[in-house]
């Protein structure tokens, strides 16, 4: 229950277009509410079943535990040596990994399929609201500015991909694809263009390819016409959106990112194995700007070197292998499970060009989805 509430809290925070906690201030109680709830979930699980602590020593979970401790120890060392306040160290990043462990423990419970469905529904409806808010923002109907939710788009991607797998009709899925593709293209960013292509491709693969290449046909001529019209509409929006994307593409932010990337690479080259031991600042000063790295992999690499990046990749590899196995074996509950998988994949890609680990709500998407997928286990099959 606490883990579910933590997801609700994270979604609510992500729906704030200004990332200012809906004007409730930047106090720890508000900013870290999803993490606090996850910490409570971990405590409840360990008290109810002390032996469940062994789950944390599985390879992927142990790797993430090592990464969190690496960040925490480096933060305390930085405070001791420089007197730096912990809020300006990697301690916040370390705390934000707690949702991974909450997810890992919850996935070991007997109700994991019900948990996945419940989490998937929250992601689905939260993502739908976000897509509508992005649309209204791009039309300048709300918020008074464009470009909202750049870092939070994995939530919308997860919802859109889940819609493609839900047991609904082709018209429902085509409408979802039209909405998602149009909104992502209207955002005019490289990553949003990628999400538009992904959603369109999944729509075609799930709803059109089986009909075209496996000999199946819709049950009636009316449905056949509707399917063709739906596919044509999605293709048209994609083509028009591509033209819109080219006309409004903005690259101004790239000018600030390259110096940040270069500084992080220089820090890594000074100590490739352990980086700065996470004793440096997670923020970078470029002229009068103090900004996050905008590439979380580079941030981990500069802060903890190849050791830290290797620990992260252990968990990512475990999650990806389980994800591939899940779809290869045709495990049921595709729709809502795909919501979690979609968030994970979109987050891992978004981390290449956006500071996903900078905000608690967006880092929650990364760590919670990674914890779920890295600890996914296939239900035992009955012997004949």
TrEMBL record:
Annotated TM spans: 60-78, 90-110, 122-143, 171-187, 193-213, 225-245, 300-319
The keyword Membrane is assigned to this record: yes
This protein's name: O-antigen polymerase
Superkingdom in the source lineage: Bacteria
UniProt keyword terms in alphabetical order: Membrane, Transmembrane, Transmembrane helix
Coiled coil feature spans: none
UniProt entry tagged with the keyword Metal-binding: no
């Amino acid at each position: 229950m606490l883990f579910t509430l933590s997801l609700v809290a994270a979604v609510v925070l992500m729906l704030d277009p200004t990332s200012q906690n809906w004007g409730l201030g930047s106090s720890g109680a508000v900013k870290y509410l999803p993490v606090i709830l996850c910490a409570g979930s971990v405590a409840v699980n360990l008290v109810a079943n002390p032996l469940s602590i062994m789950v944390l020593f599985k390879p992927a979970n142990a790797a993430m535990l090592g990464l969190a401790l690496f960040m925490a120890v480096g933060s305390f060392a930085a405070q001791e040596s420089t007197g730096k306040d912990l809020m300006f160290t990697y301690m916040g990043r370390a705390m934000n990994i707690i949702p991974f462990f909450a997810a890992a423990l919850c996935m070991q419970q007997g109700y994991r399929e019900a948990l996945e469905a419940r989490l998937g529904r929250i992601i689905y409806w939260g993502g739908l609201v976000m897509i509508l808010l992005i649309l209204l923002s791009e039309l300048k109907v709300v918020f008074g500015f464009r470009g909202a939710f750049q870092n939070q788009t994995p939530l919308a991607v997860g919802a859109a991909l889940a819609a493609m797998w839900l047991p609904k009709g082709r018209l429902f899925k085509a409408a979802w694809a039209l909405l998602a593709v149009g909104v992502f293209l209207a955002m005019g960013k490289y990553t949003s263009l990628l999400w538009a292509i992904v959603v369109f491709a999944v729509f075609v693969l799930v709803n059109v390819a089986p009909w075209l290449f496996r000999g199946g046909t819709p049950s009636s001529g009316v449905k056949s016409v509707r399917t063709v019209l739906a596919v044509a509409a999605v293709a048209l929006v994609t083509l028009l959106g591509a033209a819109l994307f080219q006309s409004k593409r903005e690259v101004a932010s790239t000018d600030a990112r390259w110096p940040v990337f270069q500084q992080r690479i220089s820090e890594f080259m000074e100590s490739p194995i352990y980086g700065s031991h996470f004793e440096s600042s997670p923020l970078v000063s470029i002229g009068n700007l103090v900004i996050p790295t905008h590439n979380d992999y580079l941030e981990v690499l500069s802060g903890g070197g190849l050791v830290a990046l290797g620990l992260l990749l252990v968990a990512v590899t475990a999650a990806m292998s389980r994800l591939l196995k899940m779809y290869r074996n045709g495990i049921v509950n595709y729709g809502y499970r795909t919501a979690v998988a979609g968030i994970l994949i979109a987050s891992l890609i978004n981390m290449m060009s956006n500071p996903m680990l900078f905000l608690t709500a967006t880092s929650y998407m990364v760590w919670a989805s990674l914890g779920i997928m890295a600890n996914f286990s296939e239900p035992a099959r009955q012997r004949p």
